[in-house]
Amino acid sequence: MAVLMGGLSSEREVSLVSGRECADALERLGAKVSRIDAGRDLAQVLTANRPDVVFNALHGAWGEDGCVQGVLETLGLPYTHSGVLASALAMDKAKAKAVLAAAGVTVPGGGLFNRFDVAKSHVMAPPYVVKPNAEGSSVGVFLVFEGANGPPQQVVAPDWTFGEEVMVEPYIAGQELAVAVMGHQALTVTDIVSRTGFYDYDAKYGEGGSTHIMPADMPKPAFERALRMAEAAHSALGCQGVTRSDFRYDNINDLLVLLEVNTQPGMTPTSLAPEQAAHLGIGFDDLVLWIVEQAYGGRGKSGI
């Protein structure tokens, strides 16, 4: 086994933790594991390593957007999670939203705008959300509330490295929800209550940053709708293995909106997909083993 971790993206630190946890689990299961901090020499390292299967624990750009998947396809190595097309499609928020909407999944409005136009004036009436079009873990996400003095200037700061276009979407008040899909079957719904009021990077990965309520306390019809929408999104994008869909639920207006699909969800101690699997009696090691088995012998098969 080769476990890819770290990588080149802004989510490197999270990936190192995910990779460590998965590598530890594989060693407990008896596998011979090579822990690889993935860099641009990845093809040469894997050629020398010659693993039977690759566990891709990378997060964010390059490791999760189809690039590394293309390398692994070229080398003919079985690997975990989704393939090239699904990975690239899910990472591009604008294109993913178009596919999901065509599949009947409710997604936010808004669209892509030049970052300098977004910083110059409000491109839609507040409240709204500004985010990079191809990042995860809430990296580079800003909320603009009603009464704000002006649009966000962070998108034109010298240290902005997330592209010339940004996604701007209307802000949807209500519960922050997540649904993991394993194979093609949704597990459960988690209600995420952030300590900071916004489920940002620190709330996701910092100790005590958020509370996870599982199963989510919400009307049963909406709960079931979240499960079915996550499954539909997983299938529409052509995903494999385990994914996690993120939602907002406005219970006043009974509005459930899917924000994005994560094709390589976190595998850290505070991550949502392992928590949901454990809730259904699937321990962390068993989850990791299932993911590897799908990669090595059953890619494309559905079910738990």
Element-level helix/strand string: EHEHEHHHEHEEEEEHEHEEHH
Give the uncertain stretches in residue-range form.
299-304
Q: What Rg do the Cα atoms give? A: 19 Å
CATH class type of the largest domain: Alpha Beta
What global shape is seen?
globular
How do the helices and strands line up, and which of them pair or pack?
Blueprint: E1 2-5, H1 12-28, E2 34-37, H2 42-49, E3 54-56, H3 67-75, H4 84-91, H5 93-102, E4 111-114, H6 115-120, E5 128-132, E6 142-144, E7 165-170, E8 175-182, E9 185-194, H7 201-205, E10 210-213, H8 220-236, E11 242-250, E12 255-262, H9 272-279, H10 284-296
Parallel strand pairs: 1-2, 1-3
Antiparallel strand pairs: 4-7, 5-6, 5-7, 8-9, 8-11, 9-10, 11-12
What does this structure look like?
With 304 residues, the chain is an alpha+beta fold. The protein has three domains: 2-80, Rossmann fold; 90-107 and 173-281, D-amino Acid Aminotransferase, Chain A, domain 1, CATH 3.30.470.20; 111-170, Dna Ligase, domain 1. The chain is built from ten helices and twelve strands. The protein is globular and about 55 Å long.
Concise account of the structure shown:
By secondary structure, this protein is an alpha+beta fold. Helix content is 33%, strand content 22%.
